[in-house]
From TrEMBL:
Gene3D superfamilies: Glycosidases. Residues 1-35 form the signal peptide. Residues 39-347 form the GH26 domain. Residues 346-376 are annotated as: Disordered. This is GH26 domain-containing protein. Residues 351-375 have a biased composition (Pro residues).
């Protein structure tokens, strides 16, 4: 508690006592009169109306990857219920990367996801699209380089045109397409490292082919993994004309790396935010979750706070072991954090307490203008000079009639 500070005392009490004594004496004398009263001071102006606070922004859209097929759709309702009926606006699945026919969107595979998406206007379907078949078969760099160059020359355009036509036919032309994700690593055949220039040209050909399909409204999400990995992901960026969203897959790895380091490392979380801002693009986090550091509640808390702060277009937790919290029993502490933060969350802004109503200040009546000169004393009355402060306190000048003695005899 702060110590109360006493104000510096002034000579005002003694001055008031002197004025009261003078007033009593003058009032006892016959013939003493007070001049015309001074007009009252004008009322202070009414306070300016309060500027209303800006409405809080809606919470970022979120969801989780639960399964690539129909079970993934069914489990979304169960996850929502577990989160206190939180609104999961984002459905996330992956096209199989085993062969071209599946990358084109095999009949029946996407139907259940399209049905979920079209049931509510504000839902979002996120679809990871491989850029190559045999995408997880350990193809060596020399073959990847040759495949990228063939793609850059247009050999695979027709596969992606077929996918675009399929999505438009299913009435999901606004799907977010995470094309060639984690291209800066070594896992996938569609990786960038063996020939970044050919990779960028190939990306641009795919986007051009898919945008040529009538009715499409696709958004293309460029999503590397966090950090440098095999190649700096900025070397793979294909240009602003063919990228709508800049995403990042960010798992809790490597072992022993604190969240602050994940933010500050080269090509890390802060570099991602800065790069997207410099290119005028929104953010996303298509994949994130626990990994090398086990049940790390601090990572879970900090990553959720990071996304609330930077407001991506969407985020989707990878919810299977070792990454997840709902379908994985290995991470109870992180599960508690995830559930407590997102429990009951909807797309609506959080309600705010109403501001107290301030009563309107009554409008003061018009004040007559102050005469430009001091009031004239009454005839036969001699004004007494008591000083400005006394006259202000008494409300005007005092005067004494000069014939008071003769009239009293």
């Amino acid at each position: 508690m702060a110590v109360r500070q006493s104000r510096t005392r002034t000579g005002r009490p003694a001055r008031v006592a002197a004025v009261l004594a003078a007033a009593a004496f003058l009032a006892a004398c016959p013939g003493v009169a007070v001049g015309d009263p001074v007009p009252p001071a004008p009322a202070p102006p009414a306070p300016a109306p309060a500027v209303p606070a800006p409405a809080p922004a809606a919470a970022p859209a979120f969801g989780a990857y639960l399964d690539y097929g129909p079970r993934g759709v069914a489990r979304m309702a169960e996850l929502s219920q577990w989160l206190g009926d939180a609104e999961l606006r984002v459905g996330h699945t992956y096209l199989p990367g085993d062969r071209w026919s599946n990358i084109e969107g095999a009949p029946g595979f996407l139907d259940v996801w399209a049905d979920w998406r079209t049931r509510k206007a504000d839902r979002m379907l996120v679809l990871n699209v491989p850029m190559m078949e045999r995408n997880e078969e350990g193809v060596d760099d020399d073959e990847v380089r040759e495949l990228l160059r063939r793609g850059a020359a247009g050999h695979f355009d027709h596969h992606f045109r077929a996918l675009a036509e399929r999505l438009v036919e299913l009435n999901v032309p606004d799907t977010v397409l995470v094309l060639g994700w984690e291209m800066n690593g070594t896992t996938y055949t569609h990786r960038c490292g063996p020939d970044p220039e050919a990779w960028k040209t190939y990306w641009n050909r795919i986007v051009t082919a898919m945008r040529s399909v009538p009715g499409q409204k696709f958004r293309f999400d460029f999503t590397p993994s966090r950090g440098r990995d095999a190649v700096p992901w900025t070397q793979c960026y294909p240009g602003d004309d063919t990228v709508d969203i800049i995403g990042m897959d960010s798992y809790d790895q490597p072992r022993g790396m604190a969240f602050d380091e994940q933010v500050k490392e080269p090509f890390g979380l802060q570099a991602h935010v800065d790069f997207a801002k410099a290119h005028g693009k929104p953010l996303s986090y298509p994949e994130w979750g626990l990994f090398r550091n086990g049940d790390n509640a601090e990572y879970m808390r900090r990553m959720l706070a990071w996304m609330d702060e930077h407001r991506p277009v969407y985020n989707t937790l990878t919810d299977y072991c070792p990454h997840g919290v709902w379908q994985c029993d290995d991470n109870p502490r992180s599960t508690a954090v995830y559930r407590s933060v997102l429990f009951g969350r909807t797309d609506e802004p959080a309600p705010t307490a109403p501001e107290p109503t301030v009563p309107a200040t009554p409008t003061a009546p018009p004040v007559p203008a102050v005469p430009p000169t001091a009031p004239r004393p009454q005839a036969g009355c001699s004004p007494l000079e008591l000083g400005d402060w006394v006259e202000h306190w008494l409300g005007g000048k005092l005067c004494m009639r000069l014939d008071w003695y003769s009239r009293s005899r």
